[in-house]
Fold these 3 entries.
Entry 1:
Amino acid sequence: MTQTFNCPNCGAAIEYSGAGRTMKCQYCSTVVQVPEELWREQETQQTVTQWKKYVMIFLIITVVLPTCLSLFGVLAGLFGAVIGFLAPVFAVFVQFFVH
Ligand SMILES: [Zn+2]
């Protein structure tokens, strides 16, 4: 979403880059102050974006990571159970055919 404002010197439309509170006019090279509502809105959006990022990190740490770890634990437990079941079978098998 690009926002524009008019150069106070030459009246040309300046496209706000989304960073900083001053910009250079492309047409008359005047350094102009970005209207307060533009950078204020931009900073609010950045704050919201950062806030969303922290919520995502929080969710990953509290929900996704434990879920993955518990799934991994279940798989490891199943693997251990299968090994525990197969080991005696294998031992009996080996005794039958080796001796
Ligand atoms: Zn200008």
Note: Residues 47-99 form one domain.
Entry 2:
Amino acid sequence: MKIIFDIICYFFCSSLFLISCSNNDSSSGSSSSSETTSSSDNSTNSTSSYLVSEITQTNEGDGYLSGSFEVPSNGISFMLSTFMDNNSAVGFYSLTDPDGINILNSSSALYSYSSGSLGAYGFASVLVPHTTNFSAKAGTWTFKNYNNDRVKLNVRTGSTPSTATFSVQAYITGTTWSANDIASALSVMSNIFNTNGITLSLKETITISDGQYATISSSFTDSTTSALISQGSEDSVNLFFVEDQPSSETAILGVSSGIPGAMAIASSWNGVINYLSAHAIGSSLSSQLLGETAAHEMGHWLGLFHTTESTGDSFDPLSDTAQCPLSLDQDSDDKVNAEECNGYGADNLMFWTTWSASSQAAGKTQENLSSEQQYILKYSPIAK
Ligand SMILES: [Zn+2]
């Protein structure tokens, strides 16, 4: 998300806690074998080379479930997801590649970044590649998993990507603004990706007139938010432009359901929220800022982290994104804002907060992606 609220905190602070407390470092399971989930529900997408399936798991009898899957020789990427419908914590204990390397072990770059490793409420996933140091190696992968309702795998196959196209579906709720009012913001968003080598294929915006969705919580486990996001298309990145956020919540510009979200899987995590009222200038919308917010949240949803977090001591796992250390904090508020990070990544789409209003008015934007950020998007399981 952008500005005050931090989705990473959802994963880092709250979710992990539950999982690591109770399940720390158990020995591996010896015993067998009642199957908990076994339906295999394969479906292909006719215009894209990915396949989503449900993986049969084996109950290890020690609190873990295990499973395995094959990545074919032309595998490009995959996302492994675990779900729990009552929104209790889920996560993976291990994910071992065909060379026997557990890519979620404590020395892995993914250990403190991937929701699949940290754990999260209701949905957690592992994306490969999530940094350029990982690849979807061909062969048999195995995993151990905490209790869950189902594990799904989305594998992309094909030739090595040099570009990417994403299908994007926008939705608008409420009565204050209509599809026409967000059209120029969608153009801003599309241009941002275009200048970074990525094409968006925008579907016609869908208006959702049901009044219960005009104001919704930024929590994806909220029942109304869940009902809205679950309407998202399974073959697109779903961007929900929601009129307003409950006044009881800390105001934000937008929020992603995960880093990444549930790609091509209908669920509460199949999209992002952009709050329209937070982008209002008088009765109209700031198209530049709204376009940047939508692109930023979409970046999260596809697996990009903030390049620098507010504290100036936490950075994304990529090697070519500029970092803005706390030593650049000039006003001693223990945060690094965009002005303090000028030249240190403040112009990156995935910087943690926006430029100040006066900098925006002076033409400052956040539209850049590094080559490694572009790489992650181009290898996305749902890119074409
Ligand atoms: Zn963000």
Note: The first strand starts at residue 35 and ends at 37.
Entry 3:
Amino acid sequence: MKRIIPPLFLIALFFHGHDAVTQPVPAVEENIPFLVTFGAQSDKSWGDDDFSQTFFFVVPEENLTPIYIRVFDPDVGGLHDEQKGEWNTKTKFSVYGGKECITHPDATGTDPVGNYKSGNLLASKIFGESDKYDNEWYTFGPFNPTEGELVHKYGGYVFKIIAEGISGDDGNLYRYFLSSKSDRNEAIEGGNAFTYEYTFRLHDDPSQVSHIYPFIDDKVISVKQSNFDWDDDGVIKIVSKAKPGLEIEVSGDNEWKHSEHKIVDREHNSSLDIQFIKSRNTIRNNNVVISVRNQYGEFLPFYTVPIGGIPKYQPSIHAVKR
Ligand SMILES: [Ca+2]
Ligand SMILES: [Ca+2]
Ligand SMILES: [Ca+2]
Ligand SMILES: [Ca+2]
């Protein structure tokens, strides 16, 4: 017997392919298991260059209901985290909104210097080893969307969260979720998240490819990427509408590597897909840092939901001739 698909199911299908369910940070499309921030006394060779990580969340102007920023496994101990000696690390998570939370020039750099904690401090909490928050969620909020900073070029009200490894030498692994509910993860339609410098854990399984998606606006003519502590764990490639898989310079242990790449017209107003492809003899617990800037030295945002979708290489007519 023929069945008509109920409308609710169709709606679910519709949202499944769009922003609405893709607000975990890292996002599903990125295939990154965890964000990571080490304590201030850590050895940088474990994969975090500055013990601080900033993320921005965008709430569309049409959203009038309160929002929550949820943190998975905010503690440093038990499951998921990276231990050195005793667990002795404290991580401070702080949420900012208001004027200059993102538009202050120091807010969008990649080093925790100057007034990078700009804006109004809305909430903050310090986590160490904790049974209560191990493998569990902690919820910041509720926040009224208008407590964020309204910036049209980012698509709405912007909130900032900074994870700071204030002491200790262990690695805190965690994830975020921008939610409309305090007790569960429910995505905000049209919401997004981004960062200018991404510090994250890779999968141990070499068949798992992680991705990040820097956005290329129409004034970008070249990009310079910088990566730290990749541990020579395979290749990192750029895939875009015009690039089938350009290998970039990769770092070894405890070092930065940089490379510059030209951007062509077809790549404007879309995201690049930077792919982290591990080698067979895989490095375990590999943490890496990456940032990308344009020809003016301005850092480009990595959107967790790639703007314009995930770019696919499209050979030009010129390139396929003869
Ligand atoms: Ca934990
Ligand atoms: Ca320790
Ligand atoms: Ca953790
Ligand atoms: Ca590493």
Note: The radius of gyration is 20 Å.
